[in-house]
Amino acid sequence: MKTNRIRTTQPVIRTREGMESLIGEIAALKNQQRLLTAAMDEQIQFIREQFEPQLAAQNEALDQKMEHARVWAEANPHEFGAARSIETVHGAVGWRTGQPALKTLPGWTFDRVLQTLKTAGAPATFASRKKSTNKTSSPTATSSARKNCGNWACGSSRRRPSSWSQS
């Protein structure tokens, strides 16, 4: 049977002195790598220090202008009409009329998010507790529930859809 393997020749270390020499070369290369990384980080930090004040000023000015645009959009909803955005000479202004909605990241569930918030000691304002009636098993369905409620409906009722006919 013929094999199609490509064989590479690698130096064979035959003595301890050869191994010591190889480890010395590896250590020297690692040290050079660390020195180059440190020099690169130093230059990046120097450049960052030069541009950060300018970027911070730009971000502050941008935040102020975005706030002015939001105030204008709230004061002039008629400009949008039925559209969610309007085109201007320099770009589009988008306006959302609905409430923001939460979506979980891939692989996460809301139960897992709540558990993570709970274990992290997050403030209670990050999670809400909503209580509602169980619509599939309302108190009108069982006599024991009627006794506990003191009336037939307990403030709720089960209605038949109009498509159901009584026979």
Query: Tell me, what's the shape?
Result: elongated
Count the E strands. Answer: 2
Strand percentage: under 5%
What class do helices, strands and sheet pairing give? mainly alpha
Question: Helix and strand string, N-terminal first?
Answer: HEEHH
Sheet with the most strands, sense and barrel status: 2 strands, antiparallel
Uncertain stretches: 148-158, 162-167
Compute the CA-based radius of gyration.
Answer: 35 Å
Give the end-to-end Cα distance, rounded to a whole number of Å. 82 Å
Q: What oligomeric state is this?
A: single chain
Average predicted local confidence, pLDDT: 79
Question: What does the model show?
Answer:
This protein is mainly alpha-helical and 167 residues long. A hairpin with a 4-residue loop joins strand 1 (85-87) and strand 2 (92-94). A two-stranded antiparallel sheet has the order 1-2. It has three helices and two strands. The model is unreliable at 148-158 and 162-167 (pLDDT under 50). The protein has helices spanning 16-75, 110-120, 143-149; strands at residues 85-87, 92-94. The longest helix is centred in the first third of the chain and has 60 residues, at 16-75. It has a domain at 16-78.
